[in-house]
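Tokens in:
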């Protein structure tokens, strides 16, 4: 058995993989947000459609997107494995334990938060990615070039108050998930230091508020425009 397989099968190895995939997904959120914010430009979807077209036809982006799907899957699988291992290692809870005094609510419920976010991702992929890849979309022409009009399906989805509410609530859960996961990933990778850890925690806290809030802002603004 090689040292790689030994490491991946160990608890430490699983945590390291969780941290690395988590940091990659955090980076993906930033890139995805930058693209989605173009939905708020008042140009009838031109900027967003061009962005979506460039993402779909760039070979490097295609490889990254497939890697992203793989990392999401790995992140979910190893989170389930680690959660089960933690429960098995403590089959009987301490009668006098007070976990709320020693840990945050998000850190104690990462499994639940991750499950909710997985459901959101599946719904989100079915509603947008699947339609973009396999659906019959209208087209738009900009400077003589024909693009899939992805803006149409996004606008339609965000005109539905129930989907908007589902999206905004999911971003709230994402915020809780990130509030623990951001700093935890750096700690797992050994990047914990008395001098820098407080800064990482502050950056992580800010990230967990700003990024989900901006994601939630997009469907809210687009829905308000339909009123």
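Residues out:
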């Amino acid at each position: 058995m090689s040292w790689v397989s030994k490491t991946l099968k160990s608890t430490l190895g699983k945590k390291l993989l969780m941290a690395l995939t988590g940091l990659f997904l955090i980076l993906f959120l930033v890139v995805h947000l930058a693209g989605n914010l173009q939905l708020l430009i008042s140009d009838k979807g031109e900027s967003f459609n061009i962005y979506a077209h460039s993402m779909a036809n760039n070979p490097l982006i295609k490889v990254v997107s497939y890697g992203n799907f793989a990392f999401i899957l790995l992140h979910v699988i190893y989170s389930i494995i680690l959660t089960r291992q933690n429960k098995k290692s403590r089959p009987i809870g301490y009668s006098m334990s007070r976990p709320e005094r020693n840990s945050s609510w998000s850190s104690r419920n990462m499994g639940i938060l991750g499950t909710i976010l997985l459901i959101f991702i599946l719904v989100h992929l079915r509603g947008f990615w699947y339609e973009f890849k396999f659906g019959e979309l209208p087209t738009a022409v900009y400077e003589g070039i024909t693009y899939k009009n992805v803006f149409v399906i996004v606008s339609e989805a965000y005109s539905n108050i129930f989907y908007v509410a589902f999206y905004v609530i999911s971003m709230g859960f994402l915020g809780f998930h990130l509030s623990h996961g951001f700093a935890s990933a750096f700690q797992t990778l050994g990047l914990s230091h008395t001098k820098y850890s407080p800064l990482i925690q502050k950056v992580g806290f800010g990230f967990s508020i700003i990024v989900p809030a901006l994601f939630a802002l997009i469907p809210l603004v687009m829905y308000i425009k339909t009123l």
